[in-house]
Amino acid sequence: MDAASLSASPDAYPQAVDLVRGRVLVIRMDARGYRAASFLDDRILAPGTQGAWLPGNAASQAARQAQGRKPLHFIFHVGHVGSTLLSRLLDETGAVLGLREPLPLRTLADAAGELDRPESLLSRSQFDGLLDMLLALWSRGYEATRAVVVKATSSAGRLAPVILARAHGARAVYLGLRAEPYLATLLAGANSAIDLRGHGPGRMRRLLAGGPLPVAPLHALGRGELAALGWLVESLAQAQAAAASGARVLALDFDAMLADLRGSLSRVLGHFDLPRDDTVLEALLGSGVLGRYSKAPELPYSAQERESRLALARREERAEIARGLDWLGRLARADAGIAAVVAAGSS
Questions:
Q1: Interior CA angle at 163 toward 228 and 261, to 5°?
Q2: Is the pTM of this model over 0.90?
């Protein structure tokens, strides 16, 4: 893989950026590979993967010369709210190239939190240049591509205002969920305790970045409170994106989407300026994607099974869910911005 291939086609994919060495890993992909991938992170690397590290300046030059650029849009979300399902349904239109959770976007989100600090590896101008490079490379499509839709990892939602400010024509869907079903969803997971504790430090840093709040140390929080922490920081990011970008961000509640899938899909397609006639919508509603687990399509999973798991979690985790909701209530009484988000997530 070289700079010429990177500018010529999405078959050359920027899989990772190395901020220390100032280089970009470019690997060989194709339309089938993109469609199959649930995550465009290190899980797509295999012993037979073809690729090479390119100097950052060569990758930036290739991005400026990128061919076949298409409208670029985004799916942001608070986590565990059907973002992969929505991305795969958009794939089914045949008009969308879906990029699910590109690793460089996560790297950028982490780097953004350090900008203007002494430990930051990037200046703001370097950060903006790297983002511009990736936006250009992500926008490359195939002949049939009407739009490229990047599905971010949940923690990258904090970058939505920055991304939409630099990608002037881009629009975004932001998927959210009310607090109680979100807590039940997270606590239903087999590895919820490990997952919640593992992400806890980063989430607490993000929560406290705007100033002190009356929160107990992370080690003193129970699982329900850790789940509430996750919901709060990502819901605050969603609110900030909506405030910064207005109508360019379409907010969708996952439960509401499932309750009116046809109407929700029509709104999403219209927001991204994609065909949404009856033929397209009927094809999506009849897609086998709806009966599979989107992150592992080989596994069956339905809306009914999701409801069954939530009902079980509400019975078995009632005390932890209550603790999490109480924790949110205490923070809402201490901060007006949090109060607005909690009120919206309780209705």
A1: 60
A2: yes
